[in-house]
Amino acid sequence: MTNVDLDTLLSSITFDENGLVPAIAQQHDSGEILMVAWMNRNALVETATTGQVCYWSRSRDQLWRKGETSGQRQDLIELRIDCDGDCLLLLVDQTGVACHTGRRSCFFRAWREGGWREIAPVSIAPEQLYKK
Amino acid sequence: MTNVDLDTLLSSITFDENGLVPAIAQQHDSGEILMVAWMNRNALVETATTGQVCYWSRSRDQLWRKGETSGQRQDLIELRIDCDGDCLLLLVDQTGVACHTGRRSCFFRAWREGGWREIAPVSIAPEQLYKK
């Protein structure tokens, strides 16, 4: 991706007062929503240039290269933007699981019969995801 | 939904410093992501109790009953929450189009060959959506 392309890409996006934009990761072929996280300009540039999804961690205040520790990477298939330019949709190919709990998707709780029910199994034990 | 249920529902959600939480609307059967908007407590309570999706409009600073003006309503099929409790996923049945541009989804621009390309047609002319 050229610098001109990057300028075009970045200029279309409305970052919030903290310089962030929310990004939805969706499995490109199944349509499953995997997670939502945040990107700043640097995270988006890294994602666009490498094809590996990189977010901005608000809790750690640093770039968050998805899967760098756990191996559960996201290959970018396509980047989309909404009508307002203030939300990104990442069509990805998720290796393994997206959620730190070891589930495929972070959205594993559904409101049913007056309470939150877990609707997806743990596929990989969390201690396996983050072992030394 | 009882008041106890509503308390349980609300207490699971981490609203941001403005009292808002992002909500993704996904067509329940096709998996298509339709839009992302924001909810405050009142919008969520109204959505949960009526089954009709209601957001909080940050630009108008008021409740935004989706489809009230345009007729393009969202029937709530299921509510999900992510692992952090700071993002909602609404599985909905969308009447017509979700986007104010008259397209089914707000995410109608994809980054291809160095530029944003429109990948979805206008299904309903915007002037038809908001005619008096």
Account of the protein in words:
- Chain A has 132 residues and is α+β, with helices and mostly antiparallel strands.
- Chain A has a single domain, classed as Roll (Ubiquitin-like (UB roll)).
- Chain A has helices at 3-11, 41-50, 126-129, and strands at residues 21-27, 33-39, 54-57, 62-65, 74-81, 88-94, 109-112, 115-118.
- In chain A, strand 1 (21-27) and strand 2 (33-39) form a beta hairpin.
- The model of chain A has no long low-confidence stretch (mean pLDDT 95).
- Chain A binds chain B through residues 1-2, 4-5, 8-9, 12, 22, 24, 26, 30-33, 35-36, 48, 78-84, 87, 89, 99-101, 103, 106-112, 114-116, 119, and chain B through 1-2, 4-5, 8-9, 12, 22, 24, 26, 30-33, 35-36, 48, 78-84, 87, 89, 99-101, 103, 106-112, 114-116, 119.
- Alpha carbon gap, first and last residue of chain A: 35 Å
Helix-strand sequence of chain A: HEEHEEEEEEH
Q: Can you give the mean pLDDT of chain A?
A: 95
Under CATH, the topology of chain A can be stated as Ubiquitin-like (UB roll)
- Shape, principal axes of CA atoms of chain A: globular
Q: Any idea what the CATH architecture of chain A is?
A: Roll
Strand proportion of chain A, as a percent range, falls in: 25-35%
Q: What can be said about the biggest beta sheet of chain A? A: 4 strands, mixed
Oligomer type = homodimer
* Helix content percent band of chain A: 10-25%
Could you state the CATH homologous superfamily of chain A? Phosphoribosyl-AMP cyclohydrolase
Poorly predicted spans of chain A:
none
